[in-house]
């Protein structure tokens, strides 16, 4: 099946539930992304700053770019002019840098707090208590050029669907508590970013509002390393 055919399948399935489909385009070519764009996709997710910056310069300006990978503070300035949503915010230090760069670009940048829900040491994210501590902090209260619009989480990489369901459910319950406690009057706080190709159906059942699907749309990835014009800066 073509990229357009794959995309049509997932868009009809995901968007019929009112969930946003993020086409994960990391390591995909500009031509492949353009094929998805021409088939109606406008939201793309990238893991690496250099790669996203390069592609953003070559592709249509109405694309909504999401940074879904781990973000280092020294890379924020490169995506601040255009990024639509930063998914993996896991520290007040990173939020402060995003705020600083957003101010320079006269923008308010939307962010998701990444919450650690997996039973794995390799995942990034804040603990439930750390999220509460951050949102109560004076440092957070001073940030006027970022907007927390929800939470993001990555489940354990396992075939145990019961475990995945429990992890996604815990995040939804926590989201509801955070909404009531900190964002009761903020309509913008509404996003739960969970679910990838292997577990997106469970994620949607457990309240996800956006899912990240890559290889199932584009086919097998070409592994390519973006080493570093900007990593040295």
UniProtKB/TrEMBL annotation:
Keywords (A to Z) from UniProt: Pyridoxal phosphate
The Alanine racemase N-terminal domain, residue ranges: 3-220
Known function: Pyridoxal 5'-phosphate (PLP)-binding protein, which is involved in PLP homeostasis.
GO molecular function: pyridoxal phosphate binding
Family as reported in the entry's similarity comment: Belongs to the pyridoxal phosphate-binding protein YggS/PROSC family.
Modified residues (N6-(pyridoxal phosphate)lysine): 26
This protein's name: Pyridoxal phosphate homeostasis protein
Coiled coil: none
Cofactor(s) needed for function: pyridoxal 5'-phosphate
Lineage: Bacteria, Pseudomonadati, Bacteroidota, Sphingobacteriia, Sphingobacteriales
InterPro entries noted in UniProt: Ala_racemase_N, PLP-binding_barrel, PyrdxlP_homeostasis
Pfam families: Ala_racemase_N
HAMAP family listed in its UniProt record: PLP_homeostasis (MF_02087)
